[in-house]
Amino acid sequence: MKQAKVLLGALLALLLVAGLYLVNRYWIAPATQRTGKLSGDRPMAPQFSLIDLNGRKLELADHKGKVVLLDFWATWCGPCRIEIPGLVRLQERYRDQGLVIIGISLDDSLEPVREFYREYRMNYPVAMGDERISALYGGILGLPTTFLIGRDGRIYAKHMGATDISVFEEEVKELLGTGGAQDTVGFRQSAGARSAGRSELGDPAEAASAIPGLDLSRLTPAQVAQFKRQLAAISCDCGCKRNVLACRLNDPSCRVSRRLAEEQLEKFVRTPA
Asked: What region does 81 belong to: left with phi over 0, alpha with psi -120 to 50, or beta?
């Protein structure tokens, strides 16, 4: 009798352990994973206003409440040319469900973009980009670079390089199926995605600056003009044979001229008027 009680107790203990394991695996753990990535980890997509190829104003704010696929591309980019027919099909398939694709061309001139737009029968708005919008989105270092923006205006995925259309479709469908920020907490990138990781965005004040990469919001227009003259009088050490101002304007990615300009800006701000 005593031995039977011992065996029964052991059996009950074993069942309890198994039960706790199953509860943790199929209830607690999945719930934790779904809520593990809070919306605070998803940066808000920087706002922009451009003119599209058809002469219409193109503003990200006009698409609030929709899922936006923002694609940085160029006509000379082979992977971009391969990817775009799939984006055309994606826009056609999910337009009525709330998908908006926006193309930002980083071509140097407008004409090849117009020809490409007509030839590929692109069914979504395309506008010409520049250094400012590239800086807003953290600097576009390679093409194509694509951002997935949810209905809440936050960036949920970033892809660098050619991406299979099935990856975009899977992520788009997940974002389309949500009603807002609370529902997109558990978003996960497609298993086939080559993610670029968390989106590091540029400072809007720096992106809109008269001197790329510098926040001049503390300066008056007269001070900005004076500061420009000061930078123009200093040679850049990067080997470009330009002054610091010219280097910043011609090569915003130059770290040497940026460092020199930032140092001069701090001195300029601290100097009594």
From this structure: alpha
Relative to beta strand 99-105, strand 126-128 is: parallel
- Phi-psi region for residue 117, left (φ > 0), alpha (ψ -120 to 50) or beta? alpha
Q: What is the pLDDT of residue 273?
A: 65
Residue-wise pLDDT tens digits, 75-85: 999 999 999 99
Cα 185 to Cα 34, 50, 189, distances in angstroms: 7, 30, 12
* 3 state DSSP class of 217: coil
The identity of residue 73, as a single letter, is W
Q: How far is CA 266 from CA 115, 218, 256, in A?
A: 47, 11, 16
Which structure tokens are listed for 58?
């193109």
Give the separation between CA 256 and CA 147, rounded to whole angstroms.
Answer: 29
- The Cα-based distances of 260 to 106, 124, 173, 234 in angstroms read 28, 42, 46, 9
Tokens at 176, concatenated: 């389309």
Strand partners, 260: none
The answer, as to whether pTM is greater than 0.85, is no
The strand pair at 67-73 and 49-51 is best described as unpaired
Radius of gyration of the chain (CA): 26
Angle (CA) 155-158-162 rounded to 5° is 150
Average pLDDT taken over every residue of the chain:
82
